[in-house]
């Protein structure tokens, strides 16, 4: 609820202050950085080990992803690994199909399924089994430390836009607007785009590859989520560092990973072989 209140306050204040573009830029900058922190860091590096990185790089992505305020790294990864283990079947924490037995394509069935996968699951989820799903992260000093200090990274993620707004405008009003736009409002945007991967991308889109679930490639969220919306491709090849498996499917997270690899910062970038792609391709 607070992000919506923050949005109303921020919009009301913008009419009375100059430099409105500054606060939108702060929001976009925080949205891009923390969104990529989730996609490149939490998802492709830590959940699926699509590439390998040294401790400093792992620390950077773990801290940046934590600033998205989507939960501690170990919990986030455990939930996502559980999702892949039971995708669209009983045990999947946020499937739009497995938790609504009356789902039959009716308007109500689709609406409830969307709601559950998008946000409803957060209120019904069972405790996460960390020892079962993320023993590797619990044993890693870097990921264990960042997870245990999660709220510190949340605080830093809120302090950065506040400081930027205040220092650039040299005013308390600028600091407040920097906080509102770069903090709760940015969180609202990042959360709902992330949740749309759970809901929209298991209901609407295309299926270029054969999978055992209902995952879809959705171009809107392929762009807004920096490549995460190419979700059918991801479920077909979970360990692939690239989800946009066509030249025209923009995948910002993969561009980030590829750039790091070219700079020698990361290695062992995993991609499906041409033979694997053809074997699972539905439209040949």
Describe the protein's topology.
Blueprint: H1 2-14, H2 20-47, E1 52-53, H3 55-66, H4 73-85, H5 107-118, H6 130-133, H7 135-139, H8 141-148, H9 150-169, H10 172-198, H11 219-224, H12 231-236, H13 252-262, E2 266-267, H14 274-280
Helix pairs in contact: 1-10, 2-3, 2-4, 2-9, 2-10, 3-8, 9-10
Written description of the protein model:
The protein is an all-alpha fold and 284 residues long. It has one domain (2-215). Helix content is 61%, strand content 1%. The chain has 14 helices and 2 strands, in the order ααβαααααααααααβα. The protein has helices spanning 2-14, 20-47, 55-66, 73-85, 107-118, 130-133, 135-139, 141-148, 150-169, 172-198, 219-224, 231-236, 252-262, 274-280; strands spanning 52-53, 266-267. The chain has a two-stranded antiparallel ribbon. α9 packs across α10 (172-198). The protein is globular. The mean pLDDT is 92.
How many domains, in number, for the residues?
1
**Average predicted confidence as pLDDT:** 92
Structural class of the helices, strands and pairings? mainly alpha
Q: What's the gyration radius in Å?
A: 19 Å
Q: Can you count the helices? A: 14
What share of the residues does DSSP label as strand, in percent? Answer: under 5%
Low-confidence stretches: none
Number of strand elements: 2
- Determine the N-to-C terminus distance: 47 Å
- Order of strands across the main sheet: 1-2
Percentage of helical residues? Answer: 55-70%
Q: What is the general shape?
A: globular
The SSE order reads: HHEHHHHHHHHHHHEH
Largest sheet: 2 strands, antiparallel
This entry's quaternary arrangement is single chain
């Amino acid at each position: 609820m607070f992000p919506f209140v923050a949005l109303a306050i921020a919009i009301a204040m913008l009419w009375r202050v100059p430099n409105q573009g500054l606060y939108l830029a702060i929001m976009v900058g925080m949205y891009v950085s923390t969104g990529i922190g989730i996609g490149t860091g939490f998802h492709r590096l830590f959940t699926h080990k699509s590439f390998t990185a040294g401790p400093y790089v792992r620390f950077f992505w773990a801290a940046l992803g934590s600033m998205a305020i989507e939960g501690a790294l170990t919990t986030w990864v455990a939930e996502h690994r559980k999702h892949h283990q039971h995708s669209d079947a009983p045990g999947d924490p946020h499937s739009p199909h497995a938790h609504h037995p009356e789902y039959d394509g009716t308007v109500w069935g689709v609406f409830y399924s969307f709601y559950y996968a998008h946000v409803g699951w957060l209120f019904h989820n069972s405790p996460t089994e960390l020892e079962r799903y993320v023993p590797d992260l619990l044993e890693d000093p870097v990921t264990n430390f960042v997870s245990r200090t999660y709220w510190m990274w949340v605080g830093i993620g809120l302090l950065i836009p506040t400081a930027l707004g205040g220092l650039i405008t040299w005013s308390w009003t600028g600091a407040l607007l920097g906080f509102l736009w770069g903090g709760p409002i940015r969180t609202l945007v990042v959360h709902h785009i992330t949740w749309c991967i759970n809901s929209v991308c298991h209901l609407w889109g295309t299926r270029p590859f054969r999978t055992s679930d209902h995952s879809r490639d959705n171009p809107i969220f392929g762009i807004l989520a920096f490549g995460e919306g190419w979700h059918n491709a991801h479920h077909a090849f979970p360990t692939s560092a690239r989800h946009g498996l066509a030249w025209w499917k923009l995948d910002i997270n993969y561009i980030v990973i590829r750039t790091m690899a070219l700079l020698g910062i990361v290695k062992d970038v995993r991609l499906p072989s041409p033979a694997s792609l053809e074997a699972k391709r539905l439209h040949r």
